[in-house]
């Protein structure tokens, strides 16, 4: 089945360049130039993955707002920011809003395609595992892979696909330290150490929102993280 990618980019020439490259790879691609146009289309039908620019016309941070709205509609939909803005603050802001990846516009088209393929592949692999009936339970944690749902003490924790993979990797082997590199491999995404750290901080905040005493993700200083049984 052909995956549908939505590109929300206000510079038409850039958007069409991305669209043409992705169509040659076999994806169906829809272009949107403004936040309102995109969100209206998403309410009718969600794409399989969204590529969003941060600045959308007069809305300097319209992409951030669109990400927030789209996350509320589809907690597990892969979202990738693609922007000329490469400050650490912008990157962290994007990840805090629930983006799975953050790329700058100087990235090569093959590299961008590889990151998109990796994001879509993660969803496919999780669904394949779900077909095998896999469900992971560790104490108060329950992961329903068929629905990409996470529960803690019976409460739903909305996780992005990247966050779900990170929790899955940690909880499968409680007590074992996973390095940031191993978490990247498990999440099937190419991120730097700071980005992995940002994801883990965001995951902790989500769990602490329903359980202030949550401390199941322990930091192994200088090494990585582990799930505490």
UniProtKB/TrEMBL annotation:
Is-annotated flag, keyword DNA-binding?
yes
Domain OmpR/PhoB-type residue range list: 133-229
* Known DNA-binding region: 133-229
Name of the protein in question: Two-component system, OmpR family, response regulator
A Gene Ontology biological process term: regulation of DNA-templated transcription
Instruction: List the Gene3D superfamilies.
Output: 3.40.50.2300, 6.10.250.690, Winged helix-like DNA-binding domain superfamily/Winged helix DNA-binding domain
Organism equals Microbulbifer yueqingensis
Q: Which residues form the Response regulatory domain?
A: 4-120
Query: What molecular function does GO assign, one term?
Result: transcription cis-regulatory region binding
Modification 4-aspartylphosphate, positions: 53
Q: Which UniProt keyword terms apply here? A: DNA-binding, Phosphoprotein, Transcription, Transcription regulation, Two-component regulatory system
- Chain segments annotated as coiled-coil in the UniProt record: none
Superkingdom in the source lineage? Bacteria
One annotated Gene Ontology cellular component of this protein:
cytosol
């Amino acid at each position: 089945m052909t995956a549908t990618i939505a590109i929300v980019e206000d510079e038409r020439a850039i958007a069409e360049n991305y669209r043409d490259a992705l169509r040659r790879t076999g994806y169906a691609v829809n272009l949107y130039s403004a936040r309102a146009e995109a969100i209206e289309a998403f309410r009718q039908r969600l794409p399989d993955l969204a590529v969003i620019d941060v600045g959308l016309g007069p809305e300097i941070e319209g992409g951030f707002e669109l990400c927030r709205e789209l996350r509320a509609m589809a907690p597990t939909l892969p979202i990738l920011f693609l922007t000329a803005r490469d400050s650490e603050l912008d990157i962290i802001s994007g990840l805090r809003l629930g983006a799975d990846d953050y790329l700058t516009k100087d990235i090569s088209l093959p590299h961008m395609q590889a990151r998109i393929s990796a994001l879509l592949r993660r969803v496919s692999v999780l669904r394949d595992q779900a077909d095998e009936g896999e469900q992971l339970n560790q104490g108060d944690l329950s992961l329903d892979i068929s629905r990409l749902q996470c529960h803690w003490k019976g409460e739903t924790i909305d996780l992005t696909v990247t966050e779900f993979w990170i929790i899955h990797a940690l909880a499968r082997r409680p007590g074992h330290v996973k390095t940031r590199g191993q978490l990247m491999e498990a999440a099937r995404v190419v991120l730097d150490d700071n980005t992995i750290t940002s994801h883990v901080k965001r995951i902790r905040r989500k769990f602490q929102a329903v359980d202030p005493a949550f401390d199941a993700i322990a930091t192994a200083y200088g090494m990585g993280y582990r799930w505490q049984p």
